[in-house]
Amino acid sequence: MTLPGFTSRSALVTSVLFALCVLSAGAHAQGAVVPPPHWSGLPIWGVEAQAKGYEIPYPFGIGITGYSARQPVNIHDLQLARNGPPVSVKNFLQINTVDTSQQNVSAKFDVLVFPFLDVYVLGGYTTGTTKGLIQVPADPILGIGIIDPRELQLNAAFSGPTYGAGITLQGGGKVSDWHDLTAIGVIDWNRTQTKLKFENETVIADTKPVASVFSARLGLHGTVGNANAAAIWVGAMYQNIQQEVAGSVANTDLQFIVIQSPQKPWNTLLGGLFEFGKDGYVLLEGGVGARKSVLAAAVYRF
Q1: Which residues span the domain enclosing 19?
Q2: Tag placement on the chain: N or C end, fewer CB within 10 Å?
Q3: Is 3 inside a domain boundary?
Q4: Could you tell me the pTM of the whole model?
Q5: Interatomic CA distance for residues 268 and 248, integer angstroms
Q6: CA distance 18 to 188
Q7: Which residues pair with 205 in a beta bridge?
Q8: Does 2 map to a domain?
Protein backbone atom coordinates (compact mmCIF):
# COMPACT_ATOMS: atom_id res chain seq x y z
CA MET A 1 0.00 0.00 0.00
CA THR A 2 1.63 3.27 -1.13
CA LEU A 3 -1.19 5.69 -0.55
CA PRO A 4 -1.11 6.99 3.04
CA GLY A 5 0.95 9.77 4.42
CA PHE A 6 1.14 12.22 1.58
CA THR A 7 -2.47 13.13 0.92
CA SER A 8 -2.77 15.98 3.41
CA ARG A 9 0.80 17.10 3.15
CA SER A 10 0.22 19.36 0.21
CA ALA A 11 -2.12 21.42 2.36
CA LEU A 12 0.86 22.47 4.44
CA VAL A 13 1.79 25.04 1.89
CA THR A 14 -0.73 27.11 3.59
CA SER A 15 1.82 27.74 6.25
CA VAL A 16 3.59 30.03 3.82
CA LEU A 17 0.91 32.64 3.14
CA PHE A 18 0.61 35.61 5.52
CA ALA A 19 0.03 39.36 5.18
CA LEU A 20 3.19 41.08 6.34
CA CYS A 21 2.37 43.81 3.87
CA VAL A 22 1.18 45.98 6.73
CA LEU A 23 4.36 46.00 8.79
CA SER A 24 4.95 49.65 8.05
CA ALA A 25 1.72 50.58 9.76
CA GLY A 26 3.58 50.93 13.02
CA ALA A 27 6.29 53.28 11.80
CA HIS A 28 5.95 56.69 13.33
CA ALA A 29 7.04 59.82 11.50
CA GLN A 30 6.42 62.88 13.58
CA GLY A 31 6.19 66.15 11.73
CA ALA A 32 5.48 64.48 8.39
CA VAL A 33 2.95 66.01 6.00
CA VAL A 34 -0.34 64.08 6.15
CA PRO A 35 -1.20 62.78 2.65
CA PRO A 36 -4.78 62.98 1.34
CA PRO A 37 -7.08 59.99 1.96
CA HIS A 38 -6.93 57.07 -0.45
CA TRP A 39 -9.62 57.14 -3.16
CA SER A 40 -11.18 53.97 -1.67
CA GLY A 41 -11.56 55.48 1.79
CA LEU A 42 -9.49 52.58 3.17
CA PRO A 43 -8.19 51.79 5.58
CA ILE A 44 -10.89 52.82 7.99
CA TRP A 45 -9.39 55.22 10.56
CA GLY A 46 -6.37 55.54 8.28
CA VAL A 47 -6.62 59.34 8.03
CA GLU A 48 -6.74 59.63 11.82
CA ALA A 49 -3.70 57.37 12.17
CA GLN A 50 -1.72 59.38 9.62
CA ALA A 51 -2.70 62.62 11.37
CA LYS A 52 -0.97 61.22 14.45
CA GLY A 53 2.18 60.60 12.42
CA TYR A 54 1.83 56.94 11.53
CA GLU A 55 2.86 55.73 8.07
CA ILE A 56 0.05 53.67 6.53
CA PRO A 57 0.64 51.52 3.43
CA TYR A 58 -1.70 51.62 0.45
CA PRO A 59 -4.82 49.53 1.18
CA PHE A 60 -4.63 47.03 -1.71
CA GLY A 61 -1.90 44.55 -2.45
CA ILE A 62 -1.23 41.91 -5.09
CA GLY A 63 1.71 39.59 -4.82
CA ILE A 64 3.32 36.29 -5.63
CA THR A 65 4.82 33.87 -3.13
CA GLY A 66 7.14 30.90 -3.58
CA TYR A 67 7.48 28.32 -0.82
CA SER A 68 9.40 25.10 -0.23
CA ALA A 69 9.22 22.93 2.89
CA ARG A 70 10.12 19.50 4.23
CA GLN A 71 8.96 17.78 7.41
CA PRO A 72 8.27 14.35 8.94
CA VAL A 73 4.70 13.11 9.41
CA ASN A 74 3.55 10.45 11.89
CA ILE A 75 1.16 7.75 10.61
CA HIS A 76 -1.06 6.71 13.53
CA ASP A 77 -3.30 4.26 11.69
CA LEU A 78 -3.96 2.81 8.25
CA GLN A 79 -7.37 1.31 7.49
CA LEU A 80 -8.39 -0.70 4.41
CA ALA A 81 -11.81 -1.79 3.20
CA ARG A 82 -13.41 -3.79 0.41
CA ASN A 83 -17.13 -3.06 0.17
CA GLY A 84 -17.44 -2.98 3.95
CA PRO A 85 -16.36 -1.17 7.09
CA PRO A 86 -12.67 -0.20 7.20
CA VAL A 87 -10.30 -2.46 9.11
CA SER A 88 -7.08 -1.28 10.71
CA VAL A 89 -3.99 -2.92 9.24
CA LYS A 90 -1.39 -1.00 11.22
CA ASN A 91 -0.19 -4.28 12.73
CA PHE A 92 0.41 -5.66 9.24
CA LEU A 93 1.52 -2.69 7.17
CA GLN A 94 3.76 -0.53 9.32
CA ILE A 95 4.34 3.03 8.13
CA ASN A 96 5.32 4.87 11.26
CA THR A 97 6.84 8.04 9.80
CA VAL A 98 7.15 9.50 6.31
CA ASP A 99 9.12 12.49 5.08
CA THR A 100 7.23 14.92 2.90
CA SER A 101 8.40 17.82 0.80
CA GLN A 102 6.24 20.34 -1.02
CA GLN A 103 6.67 23.36 -3.24
CA ASN A 104 4.04 25.98 -3.90
CA VAL A 105 3.62 29.10 -5.98
CA SER A 106 0.64 31.30 -5.05
CA ALA A 107 -0.89 34.64 -5.88
CA LYS A 108 -2.45 36.75 -3.14
CA PHE A 109 -4.78 39.74 -3.02
CA ASP A 110 -5.15 41.60 0.28
CA VAL A 111 -7.11 44.57 1.61
CA LEU A 112 -6.07 46.72 4.57
CA VAL A 113 -9.47 47.23 6.22
CA PHE A 114 -8.15 48.98 9.35
CA PRO A 115 -4.58 50.15 10.06
CA PHE A 116 -4.27 47.07 12.27
CA LEU A 117 -6.34 44.55 10.25
CA ASP A 118 -5.61 43.01 6.86
CA VAL A 119 -7.69 40.32 5.08
CA TYR A 120 -6.62 38.31 2.04
CA VAL A 121 -7.48 35.56 -0.41
CA LEU A 122 -4.99 33.34 -2.18
CA GLY A 123 -4.73 30.73 -4.87
CA GLY A 124 -1.87 28.70 -6.23
CA TYR A 125 -0.49 25.33 -7.22
CA THR A 126 1.28 22.74 -5.10
CA THR A 127 3.63 19.89 -5.96
CA GLY A 128 5.35 17.49 -3.61
CA THR A 129 6.61 14.03 -2.77
CA THR A 130 6.28 11.60 0.12
CA LYS A 131 9.03 9.14 0.98
CA GLY A 132 9.05 6.41 3.58
CA LEU A 133 9.51 2.73 4.32
CA ILE A 134 6.64 0.22 4.44
CA GLN A 135 7.26 -2.94 6.47
CA VAL A 136 5.17 -5.93 5.37
CA PRO A 137 5.32 -8.99 7.69
CA ALA A 138 4.22 -12.50 6.66
CA ASP A 139 0.56 -12.14 7.68
CA PRO A 140 -2.78 -12.45 5.88
CA ILE A 141 -4.38 -9.09 5.03
CA LEU A 142 -8.10 -8.76 4.38
CA GLY A 143 -8.29 -12.29 3.03
CA ILE A 144 -5.71 -11.64 0.32
CA GLY A 145 -3.53 -14.43 1.65
CA ILE A 146 -0.06 -14.79 3.11
CA ILE A 147 2.34 -12.14 1.91
CA ASP A 148 6.08 -12.70 2.12
CA PRO A 149 7.76 -10.35 4.62
CA ARG A 150 9.42 -7.45 2.89
CA GLU A 151 10.27 -3.78 3.03
CA LEU A 152 8.82 -1.51 0.36
CA GLN A 153 10.02 1.96 -0.54
CA LEU A 154 7.30 4.61 -0.54
CA ASN A 155 8.04 7.32 -3.09
CA ALA A 156 4.90 9.05 -4.29
CA ALA A 157 4.40 12.38 -6.07
CA PHE A 158 1.33 14.61 -5.87
CA SER A 159 0.12 17.96 -7.13
CA GLY A 160 -2.97 20.15 -7.22
CA PRO A 161 -4.44 23.64 -6.85
CA THR A 162 -4.54 25.28 -3.41
CA TYR A 163 -6.89 28.09 -2.40
CA GLY A 164 -7.94 29.82 0.81
CA ALA A 165 -8.21 33.00 2.86
CA GLY A 166 -6.73 34.57 5.95
CA ILE A 167 -6.59 37.49 8.34
CA THR A 168 -3.67 39.44 9.84
CA LEU A 169 -3.53 41.63 12.95
CA GLN A 170 -0.54 43.86 13.58
CA GLY A 171 0.64 46.75 15.65
CA GLY A 172 3.75 48.58 16.68
CA GLY A 173 5.29 51.31 18.77
CA LYS A 174 8.29 53.57 18.25
CA VAL A 175 11.28 52.63 20.39
CA SER A 176 13.95 55.00 19.03
CA ASP A 177 14.39 58.09 16.85
CA TRP A 178 17.26 56.29 15.12
CA HIS A 179 15.82 55.41 11.70
CA ASP A 180 12.36 55.72 13.30
CA LEU A 181 12.97 52.32 14.85
CA THR A 182 9.66 50.64 15.70
CA ALA A 183 8.88 47.42 17.55
CA ILE A 184 6.29 45.41 15.61
CA GLY A 185 4.03 42.45 16.29
CA VAL A 186 2.11 40.43 13.69
CA ILE A 187 -0.44 37.64 14.21
CA ASP A 188 -1.77 35.70 11.23
CA TRP A 189 -4.35 32.94 10.67
CA ASN A 190 -5.29 31.30 7.40
CA ARG A 191 -7.23 28.29 6.18
CA THR A 192 -6.66 26.55 2.85
CA GLN A 193 -7.77 23.53 0.88
CA THR A 194 -5.92 21.53 -1.75
CA LYS A 195 -7.43 19.44 -4.54
CA LEU A 196 -4.98 16.60 -4.96
CA LYS A 197 -3.97 14.52 -7.93
CA PHE A 198 -1.35 11.80 -7.90
CA GLU A 199 1.17 11.08 -10.65
CA ASN A 200 0.12 7.46 -10.25
CA GLU A 201 -3.33 7.73 -11.81
CA THR A 202 -4.54 4.52 -10.16
CA VAL A 203 -4.58 6.37 -6.83
CA ILE A 204 -7.66 8.53 -6.26
CA ALA A 205 -7.90 11.04 -3.38
CA ASP A 206 -11.44 11.24 -2.00
CA THR A 207 -10.45 13.96 0.49
CA LYS A 208 -9.53 17.57 -0.26
CA PRO A 209 -7.09 18.21 2.59
CA VAL A 210 -7.76 21.26 4.75
CA ALA A 211 -5.11 23.05 6.80
CA SER A 212 -5.29 25.84 9.36
CA VAL A 213 -2.12 27.80 10.10
CA PHE A 214 -1.44 30.20 12.96
CA SER A 215 1.72 32.28 13.18
CA ALA A 216 3.07 35.09 15.33
CA ARG A 217 6.06 37.36 14.73
CA LEU A 218 7.94 39.99 16.75
CA GLY A 219 10.53 42.26 15.21
CA LEU A 220 11.93 45.69 14.43
CA HIS A 221 11.05 48.04 11.57
CA GLY A 222 13.00 51.11 10.51
CA THR A 223 13.51 53.56 7.68
CA VAL A 224 16.27 53.16 5.10
CA GLY A 225 17.10 56.41 3.35
CA ASN A 226 14.39 58.97 2.69
CA ALA A 227 11.61 56.75 1.36
CA ASN A 228 12.42 53.07 1.93
CA ALA A 229 12.24 50.85 4.99
CA ALA A 230 13.21 47.40 6.24
CA ALA A 231 12.19 44.95 8.95
CA ILE A 232 13.54 41.83 10.62
CA TRP A 233 11.69 39.41 12.91
CA VAL A 234 11.55 36.11 14.75
CA GLY A 235 8.40 34.09 15.15
CA ALA A 236 6.68 30.75 15.42
CA MET A 237 4.19 28.86 13.27
CA TYR A 238 1.63 26.18 14.15
CA GLN A 239 0.06 23.94 11.51
CA ASN A 240 -3.14 21.98 12.06
CA ILE A 241 -3.59 19.65 9.10
CA GLN A 242 -6.52 17.35 8.44
CA GLN A 243 -6.01 14.22 10.55
CA GLU A 244 -8.13 11.77 8.53
CA VAL A 245 -7.61 11.33 4.80
CA ALA A 246 -9.55 8.90 2.60
CA GLY A 247 -9.05 7.58 -0.92
CA SER A 248 -9.38 4.59 -3.22
CA VAL A 249 -7.60 2.65 -5.95
CA ALA A 250 -8.98 3.08 -9.46
CA ASN A 251 -10.80 0.12 -11.06
CA THR A 252 -10.87 -1.77 -7.76
CA ASP A 253 -13.10 -1.97 -4.70
CA LEU A 254 -10.20 -1.12 -2.36
CA GLN A 255 -10.60 1.96 -0.16
CA PHE A 256 -8.22 3.37 2.43
CA ILE A 257 -8.21 5.78 5.38
CA VAL A 258 -5.05 7.30 6.84
CA ILE A 259 -4.85 8.84 10.32
CA GLN A 260 -1.85 11.14 10.56
CA SER A 261 -0.38 14.29 12.06
CA PRO A 262 2.81 16.38 11.77
CA GLN A 263 5.60 15.08 13.97
CA LYS A 264 6.22 18.63 15.20
CA PRO A 265 3.36 21.08 14.50
CA TRP A 266 5.42 24.08 15.70
CA ASN A 267 8.54 25.53 14.11
CA THR A 268 10.60 28.71 14.45
CA LEU A 269 10.62 31.52 11.87
CA LEU A 270 13.38 33.99 10.99
CA GLY A 271 12.82 36.61 8.32
CA GLY A 272 13.11 40.09 6.94
CA LEU A 273 11.76 42.40 4.26
CA PHE A 274 12.68 45.52 2.31
CA GLU A 275 9.99 48.08 1.48
CA PHE A 276 10.10 50.33 -1.59
CA GLY A 277 8.27 53.26 -0.04
CA LYS A 278 4.53 52.59 0.01
CA ASP A 279 4.57 50.84 -3.37
CA GLY A 280 5.55 47.34 -2.26
CA TYR A 281 8.16 45.08 -0.73
CA VAL A 282 10.20 41.91 -1.12
CA LEU A 283 10.37 39.35 1.68
CA LEU A 284 12.45 36.33 2.65
CA GLU A 285 11.71 34.00 5.57
CA GLY A 286 13.12 30.69 6.74
CA GLY A 287 11.69 28.05 9.05
CA VAL A 288 13.85 25.89 11.32
CA GLY A 289 13.07 22.86 13.45
CA ALA A 290 11.51 19.57 12.39
CA ARG A 291 9.78 21.49 9.60
CA LYS A 292 12.34 23.30 7.47
CA SER A 293 11.09 25.85 5.00
CA VAL A 294 12.03 28.80 2.79
CA LEU A 295 9.58 31.47 1.65
CA ALA A 296 10.11 34.35 -0.78
CA ALA A 297 7.50 36.93 -1.76
CA ALA A 298 7.10 40.13 -3.76
CA VAL A 299 4.10 42.43 -3.33
CA TYR A 300 2.90 45.54 -5.13
CA ARG A 301 0.57 47.93 -3.27
CA PHE A 302 -1.81 50.48 -4.71
Answers
A1: 9-301
A2: C
A3: no
A4: 0.82
A5: 36
A6: 6
A7: 247
A8: no
